[in-house]
Structure formats: structure tokens, C-alpha cells
Design goal:
The structure is a homodimer.
Chain A: H1 3-11, H2 18-26, H3 38-50, E1 54-59, E2 67-72, H4 74-86, E3 93-95, H5 97-102, H6 110-136, H7 141-169, H8 179-189
Antiparallel strand pairs in A: 1-2
Chain A binds a DNA duplex through helix 3.
DNA sequence: TACGTCATGTAAGTCGTTACATGATTGG
DNA sequence: CCAATCATGTAACGACTTACATGACGTA
């Protein structure tokens, strides 16, 4: 899935500027499974225009920065479907510096890892909120599925991280308490 | 987290060959958050050796292919901790061609997406089994945490995908059946 | 005997990021 | 008025992947 295909795919949903595409991929509700920067999107868009897979409308409204609105052509749509049919999707690949970092949590100041966990938890909470919001307004079934995937995944991670944080915070002396008591305490905290 | 740091990190656990490192990162129980190929690992290892951050032992047992066993030096350990302290981990980045593909599920033969789901489900099941296995034998707390993260995440995804597959398979006529009946049918299938 | 696994390495090339350059508008 | 956001683009650079080259051992 290179940037060309990504642009084609996103434009198949609606007309957009390069700026919009970047936002969708890197910050929007598709950002949990793709990414692209301006430096790759703009060249890809010119290339696709040259090939007739998208068209470009120069919009120069006075009082607004000029924008280029790209639309996918029927040829572009055909190419997209062809690309998807030709080769099946490669394996998912994730890079988490956070998890790599966590591997050495015992060799670093304890407060540092704790702070990192807290930060991560808050980031993920925000992400989930955004995805839920998007899902509520989304009619398109496949997009709904893809966003729901992100929600499910991030909720599991959030839960895992939160549980781990509680473990870190619970003093060692409480470790041997009966499970029931621990449960009660957790409920009190919420 | 470049390949240099990755090698340093993995070697901080135990001595290894480049071949082993690649396996750990790309197939082993760290593969859900990092990745590296031979083409980047071998050069990184020579570079690190040149800098004195790792040492290399040529092992040439007759009847076995010669191997180079790398060990991290105390200097290497210090550098690793320094790297981790200096800059905090960047954001996690995931690329899922599967999810991108799923966005266009309605524009492709229905059987094709179904087959893809089934395949993905089986891959994830295997992955979870492997991670669980690794976790059972793992004493090192931080590794345990990182692997547990992978288990939690993949179980959520597995569950999401399985539920979705069942939805696809349930004929439209059954959609309005009482929930209890659907549950019974599902249990019968297993 | 042929294939899979162990094992190392290089060279060419792809792909994409980072950083820079530019400039208008909007909101606090 | 200053910062953030909207908006487009390029050039240099870097990191990594792919494909190739090589070879020995074990096993079905």
C-alpha cells in the first residue's frame, strides 16, 4: 500500500485537497492503519493527475488560500479495484517505540515509565473518543468496520495499560490481600 | 527506534547472531512492535562493533555453518540507557493493508473479503498461541508486559473479526430472530 | 535428491521523511 | 498582533527493503 494507492483510495470516498488527505491519513479516523506526509502525498497527486487517474480543480476564491481539489476519475476507480484484486494485502506492520522502551522499564527511573504510561493512556483515551465520534456519524459499512477495529483494539490496549498502572501503584504490601478486597478498592476509585 | 538501537536492545538480553536478532524482531515474540531485515541488521552490527558497543565472536565449529556471536559491551549498555533517556518514545505507527483493503470490501467479490477474514483470523490465532507460550516461559517482567500487550491487543482483534465474520455468515432472514436463538445456533456450531 | 533451515553479507534501488520555503487567513 | 491553521510544494537525505550471491547441514 504505497502513497499512490492510499490517495486513490481516499479520493474514492470524496473529492479532497492534498492537505485533507494528509489529515485523514495521519490524524483522522484512518490513522490507526495508515500514514503519509506532505512530501509523499503532493508528488503522488501530481503523478496520478499525469496518468489521468485523478483530475485537479484549481480553486482560487479571493480571501482564501488557493487550493487544488482532486477528484478520482472512472479510470482511477478501475485502477484501484484492479490493484486490490491483483495482490492480496501484505501483513500488518506495527512499530511501537513505547513497547520497545517498556522492555527496559527496569533499567530506568520508575517515575519515568509511570509517567509514560499515564501519557499513553490519555492519548489512547482521546483516540478512542475520536473514533467513537466518527463511527457514530459514519454510514458507510466498510469504514464503520475499519473504525470499529480501531476502537476494539485501542480499548483493549487502554484496559491493559490501565490495569498495569494500577498494579504499579498498588504498594507491594497489598499484593497478598484477598482478591475480593482488591476488587472493592478498584470499584471505589471509579 | 532505528535498527542500531534495536540490535543494542535485543543484545542486552543475551548474546546472539544477526540471524537470531532478525528472527526475534520479525517472527519472534517482539514482532508485534518491531521489524528488521538482514539487509539492515548486518550492517548495523558491523557498525556497532566498530564503535565498541558490541563485540563479535567468530564461532567456527566443524560440521556447522560458521557464525558470528555478538555481545553487548558495558559501553553499549550505557549507550542504550542514554538513548532511552534522551528522547522519549515517538508515537506508535501501524500499517495495515488488510484494513485499507477492508475499506473497499463492498466493491469486491463478497467471497474474497470473507476468505481474507478467515485467513486473518487464523493468523491471529496462531500469533496469540505463540505469544501465550512465550509468556508462560518468560520471567523478565518488562518482556512479560510487552508480550502481554500483544496478547491483549490480538485477542481483541480476534474477537472483533470473529464477531464480524459471524455477522457476514448469518443470512439476512435471520437478522430479526430473537437474540437467544442466535446464541444457541452459534453454540451448536462449535 | 531436493527442500528447508541455518548463516552471512552486499548492492541497487525504492520509498518516504525532514526540513525548508512561502504566504494568506482566522481567532484569541 | 501573534499563533495556529490552511495550503502547496521541493530537495536533500536517510533508512530500510529486495534481490542477489554463497554455502553447508539435516531430513524426508
Amino acid at each position: 500500500m504505497n502513497v499512490r494507492t492510499l490517495c486513490l483510495g481516499i479520493l474514492s470516498f470524496s473529492d479532497m485537497t492534498g492537505y485533507d488527505i494528509r489529515k485523514m491519513a495521519s490524524e483522522g479516523h484512518f490513522s490507526h492503519f495508515c500514514e503519509a506526509s506532505y512530501g509523499s502525498i503532493y508528488p503522488a497527486l501530481s503523478q496520478l493527475t499525469g496518468e489521468g487517474l485523478v483530475t485537479c480543480l484549481h480553486e482560487t476564491e479571493p480571501g482564501k488560500p488557493p487550493r487544488k481539489i482532486y477528484s478520482i476519475t472512472s479510470e482511477g476507480r478501475a485502477t484501484l479495484v484492479q490493484l486490490l484484486n491483483n495482490d492480496e494485502p501484505g501483513p500488518d506492520r506495527c512499530k511501537s517505540e513505547f513497547l520497545f522502551y517498556s522492555l527496559f522499564a527496569d533499567q530506568l527511573p520508575a517515575s519515568q515509565f509511570r509517567a509514560l504510561l499515564v501519557k499513553k493512556i490519555s492519548e489512547i483515551s482521546d483516540k478512542i473518543d475520536g473514533l467513537r465520534e466518527a463511527m457514530a456519524h459514519c454510514e458507510h459499512e466498510p469504514s464503520h468496520f475499519a473504525i470499529g477495529y480501531g476502537v476494539a483494539l485501542n480499548e483493549a490496549v487502554l484496559n491493559y495499560l490501565t490495569t498495569h498502572l494500577e498494579k504499579l501503584d498498588r504498594p507491594a504490601s497489598q499484593k497478598d490481600k484477598p482478591a475480593e478486597n482488591q476488587l472493592l478498592e478498584l470499584e471505589d476509585e471509579q
